[in-house]
Structures are given as structure tokens and as C-alpha cells.
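Hey, can you fold this one?
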Amino acid sequence: MTPTAPTLLRPTDPADVSRLLAGARAVAGGTDLLVQRRAGAEAPTLVDLTGLAGARPAVTSDDAAGELTISAVHPLTDIANGLTDGAGVFPALTAAICQFASTTIRNRATIGGNLVTGSPAADTVPALLAAGAAIDIVTPDGGLRTVDLAEFLLGPRRVDLAAGEWVTSVRVPQPPVEGGFRKIGGRRAQAISFLNLAWQWHREPDGRLTGVRLAMGSVAPTVVRLRTAAAVLEAQLPTQDVVDAAVAAIDADISPIDDLRASAHYRRRCAAGLLREALLPPSGTARADQYVTPTTREKNQ
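Sure. Predicted structure:
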């Protein structure tokens, strides 16, 4: 059955949003909602938050506070452009956006939408979790509350967001210049991640890694920090032995399951391969057995 066409409201003043959201549903890029509506989901009234994007920059940097503020209602393309145009440095998030879906989807999808769907496979969330993000939420009375991202994520399709609330921005401590993101999916574009990894660290003059933070998606009910593996790497040179120990420690941080996209066994093997590649990028001198990320043909084994 085709859902009834919704009434669309598009405020341009943040002060109007809370009033309009009474009995309505917030929408930004709508990339997830469109899929839900094809499955019959009703949404009689939608409040389009993208009208708020013109009132502020996509990314702002507060050097005094050492903090980046990222809009939750701008398209991902605008966020990536803001990060590469000098508004801030966030290599892991920039890389995640570059690998997110397709150009068309990136021109519509938003950080806010990617957060509130509560998907453990969401591609922007590992970078934000690794960076220690805080979520700014507007309450129905127009007030503001802030929640750590780790506490915002409650489970598959569940987040700490009450009726009438909406996400306005995400704030992160200024990330280091060294960071990245890798994902494994069924193809290079328009693919949900079988699993993904974001990382960031400082590299000291002697080569030791400090401030190591890792986060992985699709290996637990929510995106999770790899705290045990990060502790192994902290203040260490990423030698072969240290990397082997960090890779072995991943099992303590993840709890993947078998599902339609991949088996738990496949995900554990890919998790090890992704972290190894982040720490020791493949080179022409690598041993033949050093990189063991399995092929997608093995995903159901």
C-alpha cells in the first residue's frame, strides 16, 4: 500500500522547529526515510531541517576551546568541503564521507540523519565516536542538552532522542592530523558496510603513537570503541610485534553476529585485516601472509 503523501514544513529559523515538531517527524536528507516509506511507513507531517543550513557554516573551529562544531543539518558534501577548505581538520570523518554511498546521496544525507537512525553500520559514526563526539540536542521547550555519543547510541535503531527533540550539531575535540577510515562492503559504492574502522592518533617525533583511539562498526549492537586494542598501541612504536598484539586484542572489544550481509567469522577476520592495514599500510616489501583481509566471496563462511 502506498503511504499517504505527507505535509512538508520547511522552517528557516531554529526557533520555529520545536513548535512545528509537535505531532510531526523531523527529516533532513530523507535518504533513510524514503526507504522506510517504500516499505509502508506513514509520516503525515514532516519538518525539513535542511532549511536551517543557510543560517550557519557547515563546520566551525574554536581554536581557543580546541574544538570543532559540525552541523547536523548540512549535506555531507558541505561537511567534507568545510573540512578540506580549512575550517578544521578531521581526516577520519573526511575519509568516511568520501566512501559514503554515492555523490548523489552525499549531496542529501546529513550527519544528523546518520546518527539518529542508530545503525551499527553507519559510516560517519566510527569517526565521531573515535574523536569523542558530543551530540547537541534541542529539546521540545527550545532548550539544549548535550549527550556523549557513546551514551547516545543505545542499540540497533535506538538512540537517546525523545519525541520532539532534534539534533542540531556535533562537537569534537580538535582531532589530530593523523587519522583515517576504511570499510568493507559488497562493492566500492552504494554499499552498506560489512564492517568499518576509524582511527586517530598522534605520532611522536620518535615514532611512538599516543592518544590512540579506534572505533569499529557492524561488529556489535552499536558502533564501539576498540579500547583494548588501543591500550596495546598506546605509547608504543607500531612494530610488527606490537601490531600483532593489537590485532589479537580486537576480539575483546567486538561481538559480531551472523546476518544477511556477512558471518561473524568473516567480520572477525576483516576486523583484524583493517586494523593491520591502518597501522602498517601494505607495501611492496610486505610478507605474502601479512595481510589477511578475506574476499567477499568468503563472507558467509
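Residues 264-279 form the longest helix (16 residues). Let me know if you want another pass with a different chain boundary.
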